[in-house]
Specification:
Layout lengths: L6 H14 L22 H15 L5 H5 L4 H11 L2
Length: 84
């Protein structure tokens, strides 16, 4: 698997994870959707998402970076930066 992903690939994978693993309605997943308020994440969900994204990228996600993430767009931006 390539270690570089396009923004579109990251968005598609994130949406797939949110729908399949977290059972979130796809219509709720927008770039501005807040993980905690709009998608009803809790801290355990956030950790689970970080683990899934590490599996996807094969890269370690810094806990400090992940703490800054609030929206779906933030997740995509962070992953995009990670895989550069």
């Amino acid at each position: 698997m390539s270690s570089t992903f396009t923004r579109e690939e990251i968005e598609k994978e994130l949406k797939s994870i949110l729908v399949e693993d977290f059972e979130i309605n796809e219509s709720k997943i927008t770039p501005d959707a807040n993980l905690f308020e709009d998608l009803e994440f809790d801290s355990i969900d956030a950790v689970d998402l970080a683990v899934r994204l590490q599996d996807y990228t094969q890269k370690k996600i810094s806990p400090d970076n992940f703490k800054q993430i609030r929206t779906v767009k933030d997740v995509v931006d962070a992953i995009e930066e990670l895989v550069k």
